[in-house]
Every structure is written in structure tokens, then in C-alpha cells.
Amino acid sequence: MPDSRTPSRPLLAAHGLAFSRDETPVFGPLDFSVDAGEALLVQGGNGAGKTTLLRVLAGLLRAEAGRVEIDGLPARPASRARHIAYLGHLPGLKADLSALRNLDYLCGLHGRRARQTPEAAMAIVGLGGFEDAPLRTLSAGQKKRLGLARQWLSPAPLWLLDEPYANLDLDGIQLVNRMVEAHLREGGAALITTHGAYAAPPVRTRLLELKRPAA
Ligand SMILES: Nc1ncnc2c1ncn2[C@@H]1O[C@H](COP(=O)(O)OP(=O)(O)OP(=O)(O)O)[C@@H](O)[C@H]1O
């Protein structure tokens, strides 16, 4: 993974970041940062604004106030595209393509991590043998695993993982944690939303507690 960052700059920083919908505050103002090699666990109950925060960080929603910096510079579409890999509730996969063709397609669009292949990533997430299965025939947990394979293949250092443990069995939860651990060891960082700390990966972790602000 190319790394031109100086160690003193966080990979991601938010300053006074706030978001409202129809003048109703959803979150913020928030200040936080994540360094390479760290995970930020974003905790909060249903509706606390976790997904909304990740979508703002990914540039899919516009913040009402504050700013986001990537690698010490204001976040721009090009820097977000280069630095961020986002695993959302809808993994952005095509229902009629096979599992493997989905990964090939996404690698063609976004590039892939050095020395990794879609076939190897499918084996890592426990989907060996499902290469030719049309995506629509996979279970929710298998789709989540395919999303994790896509995440693993991405060359982007900053992972935004929205409820990565949802739909996964115990083995899948441990898989997420192993992947996050390996990604951080290689100099990446991860923001992970969760309802509770029950499944946090064994890595250097900061905590961001989200509570809906008073209107
Ligand atoms: N597209 C939308 N239009 C209007 N309101 C929305 C939309 N998406 C989310 N909201 C509202 O914004 C608030 C925050 O939602 P968000 O999905 O960010 O919460 P969350 O913490 O991720 O919740 P959960 O744990 O249930 O997934 C909620 O009150 C929700 O109803």
C-alpha cells in the first residue's frame, strides 16, 4: 500500500462535524481523529446517527457544519475515492452477476490491493466454491461475506464499516476481526459502527459514543 503520509497526520479527522435533516440535528458537532493502525468504534443505539455519520465521511451526504480531513488535507472527491472503502448495508453488488464477476467488476472500477486476487479473497471469507453462484442466490450472511471480500481487495487504507457484524455467524464475526487486524497491521485504519462493544476487534481502538443531540 503506498504511504506518503507523515506519522503526525491522522488518516482521518473530523472537526466540528454536524448534520441535520429538515433542521433536526442528527449528530454533532463531533471532533475525532483516527490514525493509521487504529480503529474507531462508533457506538450508539438505533437511530443515533451512525450510518449518517459514515455517509457524511464517505461524501455521500453533505455535512451541515464542520470539516473532514483525509491525511491532513480537506476531503475532496478524489482523495475520498483513493482513501476510503465503504461497506454499507447495501453492499453495492449486482444481483445477476456471479459472486466472482461482482468482485472482478469492482476491482476493475476501484483497483485492488497488491498481491490479492478475487479468487483468493473469496477463499479468505469462506466463499470458496461459490464463485459461479449468481449473487441473488446467496444468503444475507454470504452477501455480507462477499462485501468483506470486496473490502479486503480494495487498495484504500481507510475502511468505513457499517454494522459489519450484522448477519454474520460467530465464525463471520471472528473473520471481520481478523480482517480488521490484518488491515491495521498493514497501516490501514477502520471506523466500525456497532450497537455494542461485544465484537470489537483486538486492536488499538478509540471509542466514539453517538447520542442524538437535543433539537
Ligand atoms: N433517508 C432518510 N430520510 C429521512 N430520515 C432519515 C433517513 N435516513 C436516516 N434517517 C433518520 O436519521 C436518524 C439517524 O439514522 P441512522 O441510520 O444514521 O442511524 P443509525 O445509528 O445508523 O441507526 P441503526 O442502528 O438503526 O442502523 C434516524 O432518526 C433516522 O430515522
From TrEMBL:
GO BP terms, alphabetized: cytochrome complex assembly
Single Gene Ontology MF annotation: ATP binding
Superkingdom in the source lineage: Bacteria
Gene3D superfamilies: P-loop containing nucleotide triphosphate hydrolases
Keywords of the record: ATP-binding, Cytochrome c-type biogenesis, Membrane, Nucleotide-binding, Translocase, Transport
Record domain ABC transporter: where: 12-215
Signal peptide extent: none
Nucleotide-binding recorded as keyword: yes
InterPro entries according to UniProt: AAA+_ATPase, ABC_transporter-like_ATP-bd, ABC_transporter-like_CS, ABC_transptr_haem_export_CcmA, P-loop_NTPase
Protein name: Heme ABC exporter ATP-binding protein CcmA
Native source species: Thermomonas fusca
